[in-house]
Predict the 3D structure of the following.
Amino acid sequence: MKRVTFLLVAIAAMAGLVALIVPSPGRADAAAAAPYVTEMPQGYRDWKWISSAHEAGNLNSLGALLGNDVAFNAFRDGKLPFPDGTILAALHYHYVPSDENNKIFGQVQSFVPGAPTNIQFMVKDSTKYAATGGWGFGHFQDGKPGNAAFMKSCFPCHEKAKATDLVFTRYAP
Amino acid sequence: MKRVTFLLVAIAAMAGLVALIVPSPGRADAAAAAPYVTEMPQGYRDWKWISSAHEAGNLNSLGALLGNDVAFNAFRDGKLPFPDGTILAALHYHYVPSDENNKIFGQVQSFVPGAPTNIQFMVKDSTKYAATGGWGFGHFQDGKPGNAAFMKSCFPCHEKAKATDLVFTRYAP
């Protein structure tokens, strides 16, 4: 009887160990189908500049779109759709007057990035993000990703820029 | 007599050749003392992004400051004064609304770079440009450098930003 108990405990322990190591099919599916980017891509601040933009109104932001090498080359060469491996990083800041510059110019003329507001990413992976045009969308505020409800708004809006593979920004020559 | 003439002609020819090969001291001095940048640095469009800026008023521009690796590292690490070898490239464009974006947003919200206006450079070489705070200034429109009279206005204005080594732009984190 003791031997049987030991065997059952051993089997249960091994099963537990296996459960820890191998993610269940349910979990793996959920991760693969995650419709948005939940971790910030590394090294984006060193990427190349695609363009700048000012968004007025409620956003009131000034920023830049940077791209990794795959992204930059595609933009520069006018290659559409963007190839898998493309990553775009939109760095947004409060749109503020530069008091120090304006003092020198003698008028309110110079507007610059103030405190950072958020960073948004678009990651091209036509398999992983097949349901959203091949793009995974990311939004990070203070390093934390936007929640699922918020992230649902990305694709329907970007989908309207279908002619440029869901990307609003044009390359500044 | 013929032999003397030949000798004189030969000497004159050689002197002419030497004059073509070796620049006269006067010319060399003039080039070394050129107070501004007359040739566009190579590869600047691939450099890293320092910040974006909108200049309102007469300039009405939107653009970005890019820097070579020496410049980028100094900005990122808050290193002042900028080391020799620093090159900054300010890419300027007309500040225009993006009709295609605004149509999607349903309001005039998005302002982007239009046609390029000019590109300005600052090259740090504390020996060559000792007379202008160690900086050589450059201004190019359609690839052509600004004339001497125009270029004289750069230093007196940038000199007012002495606290940041004559550079107006701050690094956007």
Remarks:
- The first strand of chain A starts at residue 48 and ends at 55.
